[in-house]
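ok so i was messing around last nite and threw this chain in just to see what happens. nothing serious, just curious
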Amino acid sequence: MHLKVRKYKYGLLAQPYSFFQNIWRHFVDRQQGFLLLAISEDKIVAGDFFIEWKDTLYYKFNASLPGDLSHRPNDLLIWEGIQHGKNRGRAYLDFGLSDIDQEGLVRYKRKFGRKRRRFPSCAMSPMVDPHRRRRKCGRFWGN
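result:
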């Protein structure tokens, strides 16, 4: 699901499997992160991955099947994540940054009453000729 969201919805490459193995080893195995799955009729329809640090629960990854969104599995997973975080002593939920052109994602996060702030951001793309480097600047929504 994550691959399809990254590739087909956002036109991005998905992280390699080893990336997720390392996150699992460094967070989940140390009881500082967890994965929640929504299952309908023996099929995984959505998943949320959370990382815990100090008093904050971080919403890191989400993926879902478009055909099953009418059941609102992502809302259920956020609710369960919040409950799990509260039970483990977390006081805050950080939804992270969202690209300003990801209106659906920003709208989804806003449903949960998050504060919204704008963060300026710039990135340099490496090129052979340092005089021709491209700089991409934009704004992101932070929640």
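not much to say yet. Residues 19 and 132 are 31 Å apart (CA to CA).
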